[in-house]
Give the backbone structure.
Amino acid sequence: MQIQITARHVELPADVRAFAESRLEKLGRLAPDAHALHLIVGAERTGISAEITLRVHQHDVVVNEWHELARGAIELAADRTEEQLRRIKEKRIDGRQRHEGGRGLNGRLAESASGEVEDEA
């Protein structure tokens, strides 16, 4: 996955850039089919903002977070992005199981086209 880091109105030290790259590479494990991830770090009046954008399975994931420090803003944004990617992944898995006749996340058996509940044999 290609990671692009942009700093607006703030200078990012090398250690913060390295932290951001290592933290964002972990997001690639949750979304292996995401081709590019863009991190924008900018100075705001209230502190430092971090925005992460990526596209996964026809979903645009955009997360904005603020913190006093750049590292904190990046960490908060990465945590929220992980949360959103997990939700997207769970929805995809649940949808597949419904179509394949398996159990959904609620634990019930999927219904067949005739409306009868399919039994696992």
About this structure: The chain has a mean pLDDT of 84. The radius of gyration is 19 Å. Strands lie at 2-8, 36-43, 48-56, 59-67. Helices lie at 14-30, 70-100.
